Inverse folding.
């Protein structure tokens, strides 16, 4: 056996696709972990059906995991996979159109049975005809080889076959020169209590690796060298984990106990799960009877002196709207974490979209301004959550944090911050300690700078007071139906939110000499937009780019920025929600690029959108 | 927030009186409303509870009854329609040092807020829930409510209501509330006793209070008020008797149902002896079904009181257990995770 040659690659995109029971998410995650530890920059995009297990072999049951890894910093999970691993005909059918000619397809030839071909609506076997002639197809009998590798184990044939994803992972690990030990260690940590299962998985994995080395099917393997990321200690993180950690960090940095009220909803539930495991941080999680109770309990906990949050997705926000309005009215700190998904209604539960911006902005009765912070990358979910908590506590207001399905489940290397470098938020808590107005306690006597009202949780003698959703008299907080008072209180609530702009950084523009076009984004489009601008610049175009974290209020320099460019392009995974806000607020003819197919933008389509706008300028 | 419990112990220095629980807000219920009597009773009960005023919280939803917190010189939260049990659960679960009351009405608790009510009771959140039942929507001016009798003619049901009403005590027992009682707005001593027992209960205490709405549903409970033959006073450990001369009683038939019997005919020994502490809520439920609406024989008093783990206590125990087992969480360790690597410049 001779060792095969190794070719260097700068960047590779792999997609693992199979039945939702085939373990594709696990396979993809393992490959990602190993690549990250190896020092590559990575970006991932899981893509799974809303059904837990659609019928085996069917088209709706296909689950995919795309991973982009590179020897340089990358911004997206990649447009078109270089390698597709298809575990059955349905996985091939649903994914092959995303490939560029020349891409490699590794298929489990064992799964291309007459029945599976029929379920995938193939009239003939694509492995035998010209369907795939544009690609480099590698047919591997993954099931047979896996069962063969596990001959000596006592597992039944079905259980043996189930390890085929580990065989595929082993094969890909060989193909891209990934070390095997981290995965073997991981299998032991996961299946240690069932040694037979652990050994079988490792045997399948090792057999896959050895198969790559020995088979004639592959002439060589590839290597992707580590990326030159900024120095530091790194880990992988998904957006949902980062949101959960952001809450724990905000609790520690404010010195407040954390309470999360929630109700299971895709793609937000992982935040609830993660926090439920962190009780030793003093975290209290509450799975409520419905979305309304989730936010209701959180608001009660806020009244009681907790850092309180509720986590949900768009349909849940719709149900919580009345309580969020109440939080605006009673002016208590409350975090509403919206992990957006495709809408309207139930929409696309497992797919991404950013079409809840106007819901966050306006989705309540009355004049009910709510600050909005949007995260831009999985790792940024951490910082954005802390920022949302800062605003909520300092200004005694509900705050929306907008993430989405792409950030929630996507992973990237994250430079682990030291706790000392996180914002110190103790000073903003400032519970009321005593009377504040001529020997009395006035619950709506405002701080002259922030316009925030006192936060006076129960338990302090002398500060007994009542709050509620009826209009309150300025200062005393007593019920008031006085017309002038309502006008004044409405103005005060609006002014309070507007003043947040005094404490947020100006919008930073990555300008380029001669740029007449600004590409402005918000939320999870950060990666694709930056990647597209990078490519456009490499092609010689002068383009400026900026990304908004604060959607309400906007940074105070936004008007100047918008007016500094002849054209502003706002790509959004909606039909122009930020575009509308900008046009309305700044009277600028902002252009939009809109697509809502449940997937993040590709770099290529944004490059096209940019060049379209540039053409319009010349 | 842990120092507040110790703080409350000092409250004994100057005993509070009823007037210390009256806020400076003008009470704005209609003259003659049953709510006045309930408010006075609750304010009167407060000093005797042995709870510092600053540790009392009244939470309400929407409706006439929901104005209640404004009139109590305690902490208070007048929230939104039907959601008071949810909001109150967030308060009580995170602050075991507080005594949290929910004041609600039949529309608030059983119509728009039915889900929160049953789940608070199932969970056994530490809440004292006072449901003022007047069998009508008062604040919106007289529509039928989920406790209105079938065929109720109101503005929204000019030909009579079509939907079968809830019996609030049956609902509470069905949701396995650990404390279920019923009283009447102007039966001062009975209501006082019920409130004291409810406030002392660990877990969800549910008290239905028949409350007269003299504007939109006057006299709804006249058949079961004091000294009326249809009122049955439940007393733990005593045979269940009622009537002008206590001539009637409640007995358990061989078929497993309850029946109204003539005591002179069957004898005292044949009567059902009320046991409020039975673990099984079945008999209490049957008692709540003697009459579906308060026109026939209707029990008031304590239907059921049992002990079950309290939601907030258990939630905090899990947190304490986790800290004891794993040590207080270390944020640096959490952020670092198990799989990290170093990039050198």
């Amino acid at each position: 056996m001779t060792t095969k040659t190794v070719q260097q690659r700068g960047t590779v995109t792999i997609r693992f696709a199979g039945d939702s029971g085939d373990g594709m998410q696990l396979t993809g995650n393992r490959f990602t972990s190993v690549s990250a530890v190896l020092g590559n920059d990575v970006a991932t995009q899981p893509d799974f059906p809303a059904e837990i297990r659609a019928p085996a072999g069917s088209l709706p049951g296909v689950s995919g995991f795309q991973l982009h890894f590179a020897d340089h910093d990358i911004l997206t999970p990649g447009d078109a996979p270089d390698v597709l691993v298809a575990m059955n005909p349905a996985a091939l059918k649903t994914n092959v159109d995303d490939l560029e000619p020349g891409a490699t397809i590794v298929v489990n030839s064992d799964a291309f049975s007459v029945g599976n071909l029929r379920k995938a609506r193939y009239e003939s076997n694509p492995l035998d005809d010209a369907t795939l002639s544009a690609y480099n197809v590698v047919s591997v009998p993954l099931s047979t080889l896996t069962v063969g590798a596990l001959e000596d184990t006592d597992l039944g044939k079905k259980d043996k076959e189930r390890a085929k994803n580990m065989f595929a992972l082993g094969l890909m690990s060989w193909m891209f020169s990934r070390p095997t030990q981290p995965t073997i260690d991981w299998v032991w940590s996961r299946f240690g209590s069932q040694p037979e299962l652990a050994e079988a998985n490792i045997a399948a994995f090792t057999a896959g690796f050895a198969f790559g080395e020995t088979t004639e099917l592959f002439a060589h393997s590839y290597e992707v060298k580590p990326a030159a990321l900024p120095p530091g200690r790194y880990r992988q993180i998904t957006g949902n984990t980062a949101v959960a950690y952001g809450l724990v960090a905000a609790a520690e940095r404010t010195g407040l106990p954390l309470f999360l009220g929630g109700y299971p909803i895709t793609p937000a539930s992982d935040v609830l799960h993660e926090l439920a495991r962190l009780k030793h941080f003093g975290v209290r999680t509450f799975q409520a009877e419905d979305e309304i109770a989730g936010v209701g309990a959180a608001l009660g906990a806020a009244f009681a002196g907790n850092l309180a949050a509720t986590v949900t997705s768009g349909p849940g926000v719709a149900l919580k709207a009345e309580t969020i309005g109440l939080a605006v009215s009673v002016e208590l700190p409350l975090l509403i974490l919206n992990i957006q998904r495709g809408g309207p209604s139930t929409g696309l539960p497992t797919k991404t979209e950013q079409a809840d911006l106007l819901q966050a902005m306006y989705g309540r009765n009355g004049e009910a301004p709510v600050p909005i912070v949007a995260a831009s990358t999985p790792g940024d979910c951490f910082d954005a959550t802390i920022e949302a908590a800062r605003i909520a506590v300092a200004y005694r207001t509900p705050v929306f944090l907008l993430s989405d399905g792409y950030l929630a489940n996507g992973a990237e290397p994250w430079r682990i911050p030291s706790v000392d470098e996180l914002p110190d938020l103790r000073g903003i808590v400032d519970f009321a300690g005593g009377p504040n107005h001529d020997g009395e306690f006035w619950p709506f006597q405002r701080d002259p700078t922030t316009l925030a009202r006192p936060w006076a949780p129960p338990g302090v003698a002398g500060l007994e007071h009542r709050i509620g959703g009826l209009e309150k008299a300025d200062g005393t907080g007593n019920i008031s139906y006085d017309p002038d008072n309502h006008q004044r209180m409405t103005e005060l609530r609006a002014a309070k939110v507007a003043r947040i702009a005094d404490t947020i950084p100006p919008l930073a523009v990555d300008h380029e000499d001669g740029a007449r076009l600004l590409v402005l984004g918000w939320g999870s489009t950060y990666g694709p937009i930056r990647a597209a601008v990078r490519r456009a610049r490499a092609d010689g175009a002068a383009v400026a780019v900026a990304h908004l974290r604060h959607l309400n209020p906007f940074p105070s320099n936004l008007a100047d920025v918008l007016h500094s460019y002849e054209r502003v392009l706002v790509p959004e995974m909606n039909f122009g929600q930020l575009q509308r806000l900008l046009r309305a607020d700044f009277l600028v003819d902002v252009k939009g690029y809109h697509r809502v197919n449940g997937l993040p933008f590709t770099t290529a389509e944004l490059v096209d959108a940019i060049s379209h706008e540039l053409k319009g300028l010349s | 927030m842990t120092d507040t419990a110790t703080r409350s112990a000092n409250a004994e220095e100057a005993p509070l009186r009823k007037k210390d629980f009256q806020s400076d807000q003008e009470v704005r219920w209609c003259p003659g409303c049953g709510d006045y009597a309930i408010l006075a009773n609750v304010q009167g009960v407060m000093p005797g509870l042995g709870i510092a005023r600053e540790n009392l919280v009244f939470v309400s939803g929407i409706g006439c009854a929901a104005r209640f917190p404004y009139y109590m010189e305690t902490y208070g939260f007048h929230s939104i329609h039907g959601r008071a049990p949810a909001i109150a659960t967030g308060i009580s679960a995170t602050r075991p040092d507080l005594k949290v009351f929910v004041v609600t009405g039949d529309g608030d608790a059983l119509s728009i807020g039915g889900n929160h009510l049953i789940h608070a009771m199932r969970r056994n959140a530490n809440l004292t829930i006072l449901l003022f039942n007047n069998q009508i929507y008062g604040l919106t001016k007289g529509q039928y409510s989920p406790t209105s009798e079938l065929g109720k003619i109101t503005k929204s049901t000019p030909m009579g209501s079509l939907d079968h009403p809830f019996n609030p005590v049956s609902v509470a027992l069905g949701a396995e509330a650990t404390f279920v009682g019923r009283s009447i707005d102007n039966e001062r001593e009975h209501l006082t006793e019920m409130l004291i027992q409810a406030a002392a209960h660990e877990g969800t205490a549910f008290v239905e209070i028949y409350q007269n709405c003299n504007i939109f549903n006057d006299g709804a409970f006249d058949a079961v008020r004091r000294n009326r033959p249809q009122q049955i006073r439940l007393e733990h450990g005593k045979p269940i008797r009622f009537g002008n001369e206590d001539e009637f009683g409640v007995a358990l038939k061989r078929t497993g149902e309850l029946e109204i019997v003539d005591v002179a005919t069957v004898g005292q020994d044949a009567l059902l002896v009320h046991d409020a502490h039975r673990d099984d809520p079945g008999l209490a439920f049957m008692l709540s079904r003697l009459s579906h609406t308060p026109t026939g024989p209707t029990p008031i008093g304590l239907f059921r009181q049992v002990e079950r783990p309290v939601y907030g206590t258990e939630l905090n125990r899990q947190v304490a257990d986790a800290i004891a087992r794993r040590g207080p969480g270390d944020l640096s360790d959490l952020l670092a995770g198990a799989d990290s690597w170093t990039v050198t410049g």
